[in-house]
Structures are given as C-alpha cells and as structure tokens.
Write the structure tokens for this entry.
Amino acid sequence: QKIVWIGKFKDIVDESKEEEFAFRIDAELDDKMRFKGTVWEEEFHEKTKLFIDVKGTIKDDQIQFVKTYPCVYDIDENFKTIIDYSKKGHQVRYVGKKQKGTEKWVGEWLVKGDTVVIDGETYEQDDYGGYFEMELVQE
C-alpha cells in the first residue's frame, strides 16, 4: 500500500545554529510492515533536483528507516555546500516512536562518523544527529 509522510528535521547549519528542513516520504508498505521509497528533501532537492532512497520498518509504535543519498552532499568547515555527483552519498538512520492516538512520529536521526583521508592526513569525523518529526498524510 502507498503511504506518504510529511515532516521536518533539525540540523546544525553553522556555528551551532539549528535550522529546520522539510521532507516528504513517498513509499510502498508491504504486509510485513516494511517500506521502501523516495524522499524529497527541501534543501537537497533545491540544489540537486534529486530524490533520496529510503528503506525502513514499522514494529508496533516504533519506526526505523535509513535514507541513502545518491551523491556526496556535505557542508565543509566554512559552511559551504559540497556536492559530488561522482561519489555515493552517506546514510542517515532514523529511529522514532508513534505518538499515542495520532499519526505523528517523533524521534532522532543519526549520521555515523567516518574516517576520511584528506591530503594524506587521516581525520575521524564525529557522529552527529538531531530531532525529527513526521505525520502520515496519506495511506
């Protein structure tokens, strides 16, 4: 069955200033409560015209899903956007809970830090994440 969620997530954009970004998930839900689809994400789509793949599961009042970006999409230390279409993008894990008596889901997203090599130097990136909420608008 086709499902649509509309939501927003918070991310730190520069010098610890948090911003909200809108997203929409269009997915197919199977009889085992697994779903697969695409995500339209406000800023990412504006800059790339691309969609993000999503896969997840619902169990009781818990939801888990992973967004996989189709290309590198990042922000450097000067808060400038980096887009590299030649490389595969990162994954973002979402874990949330359904709010009792509603169609609203609330939780946290997380990007696992990576080890990157820049000009022969190895850097450890920290994990980072934030808050998200979304509501089922069509089932």
About this structure: The mean pLDDT is 90.
